[in-house]
Amino acid sequence: MSYTYHDLKGKTVSELREIAKGIESDAVKGYTQLNKDHLLAALCTALKIPLHEHHAAGGFNKPAVKAKMRDLIQKRSEAIAAKDSKTLKALRRQIHTLNHDIRRHTAEV
């Protein structure tokens, strides 16, 4: 059976040990003594699965949003220098919203 990192991470230690039992690899040697983190890394190595989850921002123009954020950060610096608290608050809110949009549009693959 083909596993992903996310599938393996959701399993219990005993389930991971059952999977390791059927694998002939030096990476999972001594699997009965490994804790979940080490066993997960060993299984990923043995099964040639990347050790981290990938994220992709599909249908979202992240470079354009980052460029807009750089512009807002520059304006924020100017507002700090001018001690304009109203503008500063509005700029911080816009930057926060853009950061939130980036995180929201980033999905696990």
Features:
109 residues; mainly alpha; 2 strands
Protein architecture, described:
A two-stranded antiparallel ribbon has the order 1-2. It has helices at residues 5-9, 13-21, 36-47, 62-82, 85-105; strands spanning 55-56, 107-108. It is mainly α and 109 residues long. The chain is rod-shaped, with a radius of gyration of 23 Å.
Question: How many discrete domains?
Answer: 2
- Poorly predicted parts: none
The neighbouring-strand order within the major sheet is 1-2
The assembly state of the depicted protein chains is single chain
Termini separation comes to: 19 Å
How many strands in all? Answer: 2
Report the helical percentage. Answer: 55-70%
Task: Give the strand content.
Answer: under 5%
Tally of helical segments: 5
User: Which geometry do the CA atoms define?
Assistant: rod-shaped
Integer average pLDDT: 88
- What's the main sheet like? 2 strands, antiparallel
Q: Return Rg in Å.
A: 23 Å
Structural class estimated from helices and strands: mainly alpha
Q: Helix and strand string, N-terminal first?
A: HHHEHHE
